[in-house]
Amino acid sequence: MRAPTNGPDVAAGDVLLAVENVSLSFGGVRAVSDVSFDIRKGEIRAIIGPNGAGKTSMLNVINGFYHPQEGRITFKGQTRPKMRPYEAADGGIARTFQNVALFRGMTALDNIMAGRSLKMNKSFFWQLLRYGPAMQEEVEHRARVEEIIDFLKIQEIRRIPVGRLPYGLQKRVELGRALAMEPELLLLDEPMAGMNLEEKEDMSRFILDVNDHYGTTIALIEHDMGVVMDLSDRVVVLDHGEKIADGTPDEIKSNQAVIDAYLGVAH
Amino acid sequence: MHMLYMIFIDPFMQMAQAPDLFAQTLWDGLVAGVLYALIALGFVLIFKASGVFNFAQGIMVVFAALTLVGLHDAGLNAFLALALTIGVMFILAFTVERAVLRPLVNQPDIILFMATFGITYVLIGFGEYVFGGDPKVMPTDAFYLPKGAITYHTLGGMVQFQKLDIAAAIVASIMVAGLAVFFSKTRIGRALRAVADSHEAALSVGISLEQIWVIVWFAAGLVALVTGIFWGARSDVSFALEVIALKALPVLILGGFTSVPGAIVGGLIIGLGEKLFEFYWGPLMGGGTDAWFAYVIALVFLLFRPQGLFGEKIIERI
Amino acid sequence: MLYREAGQFKTDYASDQAIFPILQDRIGLAVILAVAILLPFANNDFLTNAVMIPFMIFTLAAIGLNLLTGYTGLLSLGTGAFMGVGAYACYKLTSIFPNVNILIWVLCSGFFAAAVGTVFGLPSLRIKGFYLAIATLAAQFFLEWCFIRVSWLYNYNISGAIEVPQRTLFGIIVTGPRATAETRYYIVLGFLVLMTWAASNVVHGRIGRSWMAVRDMDIAAELMGIRLLPTKLLAFAVSSFYCGVAGALMVFLWYGGAEPTVFNINQSFTILFMIIIGGLGSLLGAYLGAALIFILPIVLRFAPEVLGLHIHAATVEHITYITTGVLIIFFLIAEPAGLARLWQVGKQKLRVWPFPY
């Protein structure tokens, strides 16, 4: 694993990312209001809640795609002002998307290679020649990408444009692309949406392996409660943009506010 | 220092010193603007109902005018020629729907946009093949278009209004009003708006997309015909108009791609802006600025309001 | 049977990352190059001068536009003007410094085009799709106006046109009316081969991947650390460089002189059609598209004579328009990815022949 590019090292168990009093609205519509929680290094943190609870907006805030009107975010000990998405990527935050956001015209291999863009830096001149340092860099990163391809067991689809792959495999390639960034914090937006049981089990295994094997901290949004309770170390629950619960899976299961939110009890 | 004076002070001095010339330039700009607005209008119709960025709208104007004049030159009675031209525009709409839109349904917008390049080329080739490539003259008398000008002696000089231009402005207003009524009061108009909002939703309530597309392309063809008549009456009818027709694009940038009032306001702004700029600032730069002024204005405008004057701000989602 | 990769094992990633991993492809490429080099020995002036030189120049411009529109997804209608920038820059450079090697100036003129292209590419950060196409129209019409109105650009010639002066290289005349078709052919071929090779290197590496990433899903690309503005501007710069060199070659090694109308909006459209029909996002597509769009009118012009028919020249032109239009629509419907895709499909079929897949 690569050393963090900015900010001090964070030991396992320390807070890797802290969200404090974040509020976000679009032209008067509140998507997130006054939410605080933290993500500790090395854990799997689930963000759950009914549809429209502001979960995806929360991820968008964390990786700099949306700028919250209020509140602040501390990542690796650095509290950030406004941040651009590529700065978040540079700082070690990778992401998958609710509706697969792969580069559809590119092959699976190229998609994952694109995930390594940040780590490749040979100049335009060498790129023109595709020789010497540029070729060396290309081969070096290809080797790393092949490890990820082996890990996700997608060897035989390498050369296929991802637009033609079935949904489950697309999700897997997207995970591969995020892993290629060697992130410290991996955000997964509904990694198992639309999958059958077998695919879900595979994906769960991959997520646990990433967490174990690479020590990557993971924050995931998921609707399948069984999966969430099995995978995650801690769970934060959002409803209508507000945090209603935060704790271990067992605590969440017995939390009355959560049960009400999901069953729709009148407030 | 002199340059600054020439740019920032002198033009306004000229405007104040010769208000009649200023008024005349304003009027000329407005007239040009009406014509731009008309092309843009046909464009908006199609974009609203089918999401197609119809590059061929400008060519449709020329094609309609050419067909009309060609038929008239062939010895047909003016109104028979007009009726036949309307028929041709319908056939065109029908063919486009069958041969281009239907096979390309659900393709990305950019593919449809490029397909309209194809339509453009076919229309140019076909039009010139049938009617010849020489510029033609619109028989204004045969269509009872007014001639001559009204001259007012005011503002310490005189201002001329071509009757033809006045007629164009009136017809344009009637057409816009008619379209507004058509959209809000008729069954087809409502269906059209439904299609504009969502193709799938429209299909699910039993609106036939194919029918709607033929209708909008036909409507756009009629708008093109009217535009072509007035345009052709002011200058020759030839495919050289193609370049001028491209001016509808900056108009749409200003007005937004889906707004009928936007097309009108955008057209007037562009028409006024380029005439004033050419008249007062053009000489400083050697003239001919109306070739690019509209595009540069649109470009500058885009940098500040990418969604157009009347468009809504787009929130990106992932 | 001949086109098989069986038995060609790759033992390292370097050979698997090669641009032509299959041996037969490399042989085919070598054969084509050999034919291209030997072609002037056929001693057919019409073939070299009126077919091959313009075809290669159009291909170069099409590669340039394809880098921008096909690979990066930024639609440009200003290709003609960017070619013009190259041509006028080259003309001014060789007028001011007549003793410098003209080929250096051809290459340098590409940098001028790149600079202008980058400036007009700046709006691409905020503007997408059709809107950007209109921004490039601003470039087209503004630059075209400059070519007409700024008389310094054409050395105050009364005609308003540029006349290519005679320049020699190692004693051989390369530009001007006395340059032989063979000389000019080899120079254009040299530029085309080198620049195709460079373009192919760029699109297969990191930069090409970030261009395609921006094209396919710009938001995701940004969230992966690809900076949009530098990536798009680089695409504009490289694309305009290619167009600029193509423009300079067009005037200096083909026309021998030019009026501003050479670089008008129709030129932009012609190049755009080449890449639509050839295949967006494919270098091979630039070649195929340029061949079809440029050579089709020539065939149409001569076919009736060969068949013994006498058709008016104007009629041929109209038929060319119609055919081009129909072809565009046909390709968009039948194979939106263009001729290049058809070629690939054919190759794939050949690979598994006699089995269907």
Number of helices, counting only DSSP H or I runs of 4 residues or more of chain A: 10
Main interface by residue count = B-C, 47 and 44 residues
Radius of gyration of chain A using CA atoms only: 19 Å
What is the count of β-strands of chain A?
10
Mind describing the biggest β-sheet of chain A? 6 strands, mixed
The largest sheet of chain B is: 2 strands, antiparallel
Bin the helical content of chain A.
Answer: 25-40%
Terminus-to-terminus distance of chain B: 52 Å
Q: Class of the largest domain in chain A, according to the CATH hierarchy?
A: Alpha Beta
The sequence of SSEs of chain A as H and E is: EEEHEEHEHHHHEHEHEEHH
- How are the strands ordered across the major sheet of chain B? 1-2
Enumerate the spans of chain B where pLDDT stays under 50 for 5 or more consecutive residues.
Answer: none
CATH architecture verdict of the largest domain in chain A: 3-Layer(aba) Sandwich
Instruction: Determine the mean pLDDT of chain A.
Output: 86
Separation of termini of chain A?
48 Å
Give start-end ranges of low-pLDDT stretches of chain A.
1-8
Global mean pLDDT of chain B = 80
Number of spatially distinct domains of chain B = 1
Kindly identify the CATH topology of the largest domain in chain A. Answer: Rossmann fold
Fraction in beta strands of chain A: 15-25%
* Shape annotation of chain A: globular
